[in-house]
Specification:
Layout (H helix, E strand, L loop, with lengths): L16 H21 L3 H26 L1
Helix pairs in contact: 1-2
Length: 67
């Protein structure tokens, strides 16, 4: 932990983990569409897996917050 008391080297103005994962999921979704449009099959697949992982992370975090 730094002098700011934040965790994981958060910069001032940055959101937390959930906001970061949501942003990543959104951006990866857009990149995945781009890869599909240009028939970049391996990138399309890998970005899809990344999106699934981000979505699963958000789902599990929200599930934990509800309990």
């Amino acid at each position: 932990m730094g002098a700011r008391g934040g965790s994981r080297n958060e910069e001032p103005g940055e959101g937390g983990v959930d906001e970061a994962v949501a942003f990543i999921a959104e951006q990866v979704g857009a990149l995945r569409k781009l890869a599909e449009r240009h028939k970049l099959d391996v990138l399309h697949y890998l970005l899809g897996m990344t999106k699934l992982e981000a979505d699963e992370h958000l789902r599990l975090r929200s599930k934990r917050k509800l309990s």
